[in-house]
Amino acid sequence: MRRTPIAALLALATLASCDYVEFPDNTATGGGQPVDGPARKVLLEDLTGHTCNNCPAATDVALGLHTLYGEDLIIVGVHASAFADPAAPPFETDFRTVAGEEYITTFGVNSLPAGLVSRRPFSGSIIVGDGNWGSAVAEIINTPAEVEVIFDAVSYNTGTNTVSMTLKVVPVVALTGDHNLTIYLTEDSVVDAQIDNRVSPPNVLDYLHRHVLRGNVNSTWGETVVTGSAAAGDTLTVTHDYVLPANVLVPAHCGLVAYLYRTDTYEVLQAEEAKIEP
Predict the structure, then answer these.
(1) pTM of the predicted model, to two decimals?
(2) Which pLDDT tens digits describe the chain residue by residue (278 residues)?
(3) CB 95 within 8 A of CB 79
């Protein structure tokens, strides 16, 4: 497994502990220059695995960027490949998801750590090494948004273990081509084993796994919400009821991440995040 150079922003990374880490509040202004109208947020999919010994350093790069940009950067830890498989104790947890396995196959991910930065090519590649995450994020974060993704309502029924949601997709400018909306369920602050080559011994039993992808509300590739075109100001409404999967440990630590992407290029045009409140 390769070792990717760590960006200078590693120094800003949030140190892991065994305490639950709250989602940032919605008052953070983030980085970048102010824009007129809605600003583009960035989705960073941190492709990782619990037996990937270089992956914790990459995750720290992502957390350092989150410290810099706040809510304008949305991180999802996508555990995938053989590095996410259940293994001998203490690595018997299965972190894999159906969607995560499809993503690494579709995008041709051959080694970890790796990342997708709004699934937009950087230096000619959609797969971005963690040493370039800062530059790739800076290119697009807080630029004018083409579309807004809004969580209009989110509720959680403890009796049925079901989260209900209503989202609105509102183009800021006219959109052409087909666009899908995908909704992730994530769980933060999952304490479990992880190999980390920066420490000795490298088997960390109480590692804090952040922003873990647990499942897709509306399938691996989401659902089509724009077919052919949509005019600026159109309001496209999506509703779902989703029973939390069995791999969720603490519903109160869960959140939803929704993103709109072009189906011809996979590029994510806008993303948004919401907490689940039991």
Answers:
(1) 0.87
(2) 333 333 333 333 333 322 333 333 333 334 455 667 899 999 999 999 999 999 999 999 999 999 999 999 999 999 999 999 999 999 999 999 999 999 999 999 999 999 999 999 999 999 999 999 999 999 999 999 999 999 999 999 999 999 999 999 999 999 999 999 999 999 999 999 999 999 999 999 999 999 999 999 999 999 999 999 999 999 999 999 999 999 999 999 999 999 999 999 999 999 999 999 76
(3) yes
CATH code (residue 200): 3.40.30.10
**Is 12 domain-assigned?**
no
Query: In angstroms, how far is CA 227 from the centroid of its own chain?
Result: 25
Burial class (CB in 10 A: 0-12, 13-18, 19+), 210: buried
Q: 236: which 2 tokens?
A: 């496209």
Domain assignment present for residue 160? The answer is no
In a domain, 185, yes or no: yes
Supply the range of the domain harboring residue 198.
Answer: 38-145+180-218+245-275
Q: Which two tokens stand for residue 161?
A: 């273990």
Can you tell me the distance from the alpha carbon of 192 to that of 50, in angstroms, rounded to the nearest whole number?
9
- Specify the number of domains making up the chain: 1
